[in-house]
Specification:
The protein is mainly β and about 260 residues long. It has two domains: about 140 residues, Glucose Permease (Domain IIA) (Distorted Sandwich); about 110 residues, Sandwich (Immunoglobulin-like). Helices cover about 5% and strands about 40% of the residues. It has a six-stranded antiparallel β-sheet, with no helix packed on it. The chain has a four-stranded antiparallel β-sheet with strand order 12-11-14-15, with no helix packed on it. It starts with 8 loop residues before the first strand and ends with a strand.
């Protein structure tokens, strides 16, 4: 899962020739039955298919509408930008779905065995085993929780606003109606405690805390204050966020900005 607002590039896993592509499908989160019923076809959304050597093929799905950066017939190298992470097609959250095939049969890129698939990016490998090279294998090591975004916003937002890039973050301005420190984290466990604090000049402090009652794929928490009359006071604003379990902090982030 990736932050759609960050406009992350999707790159080719290995050199090859672009066999087919699609662009122009709207980005739409499919979280309910009604949402999913709107997506009859294509479930892949905006995507790219690349032919590689020895009858290997990769397919990349759910790219951001209008982001596809290559054309059919292009010969590309590993790392060539194909598009950007989106949520077109049958997608419940922004991500890229990678499908690996060999002679038409789907393979699991982590084990090299057929009849599996994965949601990830790869840099290639050899048949019969892990298809990731050494660099990619290290980068894909499992992380027990992570922070997708820790930022200032001008107002409280819903999680969907972050996922669909409707919540624009940035440097606080005196004209903002409020200053909100927001944490967006993933792969969280039951009983994780999340703390978010906003600290600013002239004694401005806002805090918020939540303890998760169950494991969650993602969670958002914010703390903020409406601006006083005359605008936000000049000075340094600091956002702090932690995720702790059994009293031990496992994720931490601090960020700052200055209003002149």
């Amino acid at each position: 899962m990736l932050n759609s607002a960050s406009k992350i590039d999707v790159v080719a896993s290995a050199e090859g020739i672009v066999k087919a592509l699609r662009d122009g499908v709207d980005d739409r989160l499919g979280k309910t039955d009604a949402d999913r019923n709107q997506v009859k076809s294509p479930e892949c959304g905006n995507g790219v298919v690349i032919d590689h050597t020895d009858a290997w093929q990769t397919q990349y799905c759910h790219l951001r509408k209008g982001s596809v950066a290559i054309k059919a017939g292009d010969r590309i190298t590993a790392g060539t930008k194909l598009g950007q992470v989106g949520f077109s097609g049958m997608a419940g959250f922004p991500h890229v779905h990678l499908l690996v095939r060999h002679r038409g049969e789907v393979h699991d890129p982590f084990g090299g065995k057929p009849n599996g698939d994965a949601t990830c990016t790869t840099e290639g490998g050899k048949a019969g085993g892990n298809l990731w090279n050494t660099t990619a294998t290290k980068a894909l090591a499992y992380r027990d929780g992570d922070i997708l975004e820790a930022a200032f916003h001008a107002a409280p937002h819903q999680l969907n606003d972050l996922e669909t890039a409707k919540a624009e973050s940035g440097k606080p301005q005196s004209s903002w109606p409020a200053i909100v420190a927001t944490l967006w984290a993933i792969n969280l466990s039951a009983d994780d405690r999340i703390d978010v604090t906003l600290q600013g000049p002239v004694g401005l402090v806002a805090t918020n805390m939540a303890t998760l009652d169950r494991s969650k794929a993602q969670h958002m928490l914010f703390a903020g204050r409406k601006k006083p009359e005359g605008g936000g006071p000049p000075g340094t604003y600091t956002g702090r966020a932690t995720v702790a379990h059994d009293g031990m902090i496992r994720l931490r982030r601090e960020w700052q900005a200055i209003i002149h």
